[in-house]
Amino acid sequence: MSAGRPLPKAELHVHIEGTLEPELVFAMAARNGLPPPAPDVATLRQRYSFTSLQSFLDLYYANMTVLRTELDFTDLADAYLARAGNDGVRHAEIFFDPQPHLERGVPMSVVMDGLWSSLGSSAERFGITTSLIMCIVRDRPVADAMRTLELALGYRERIVGIGLDSAEVGYPPSQFAEVFAAARAAGLHCVAHAGEEGPPGYVWQALDLLGVERVDHGVRCTEDVSLVARLVADQVPLTVCPMSNVKLGVFASLRDHVLPEMLDAGLLVTVNSDDPAYFGGYVEDNFAAIERELEVSEVDLKRLAENSFRAAFLADDQRNAYLAAGSLNP
Ligand code: HPA
Ligand code: ZN
Asked: pTM for the whole thing?
């Protein structure tokens, strides 16, 4: 590791359900009286080999069925925060997916109160400020998305934004324009996964039809020069997740990743972990991997860390305090 690492950073693209380590899956299954998902942890881990986004999502949704009680959600978030602190994370904007939880009978109050028991005191206990972004699962009906937003707005003060995740191809952002309009009207920030497996046209839709302020992934923007020009002109942040992209086959290897091209183009890129329990590493592992495999320079690593605070949904005084504390400002 280089001097001064891990750099202070914000994590802007992490799914709390994607931080569920296999050991925790077993522990929660046992305490909730559920059958173990595999004979042992090693056997479960052997299934962590993916060929596409969908092949990952199948396991991701299966494993999260062990989350039943407030304590499960609290323990999950605490486990993430404990690891994130070691990675230099000072601020985290954390996705959660209520729909699969609601569908198996876990009320929104259990999800929200469980997460809040952890995140509500994250600054005091872990030195990490946090906020929540509720994701719409896009391969479920739009009416379900709207109902979920209405339920979430009962907890408006605990949620900073709305996102869009799950299977991308065949589920264009345009379907969710009304849901995002309602979220915007309630004062929520808007982000969406787009251009991960889906085409650049989905990124255009996310910008123009959903009004997103950040694009999650967005790596396929490099296929469309006018889209890159738009993203650069507006300095729309892109939350890139290098290890995720390789594990899900978006790029054959890290050496094939377009991150250097994106930096050269002047895009506002951040580096994130996505679903660290599944993709082989947390956010600092992603920083280390791009330094090692893509030879990203020390200057650019600092730029990426600084971008994470610039792209965060923080008040300007808090943003400036983070930048100053990290000595990341010139
Ligand atoms: N992409 C889309 N949906 C997701 C992901 C992802 O990487 N992780 C959890 N839900
Ligand atoms: Zn994601």
From this structure: 0.97
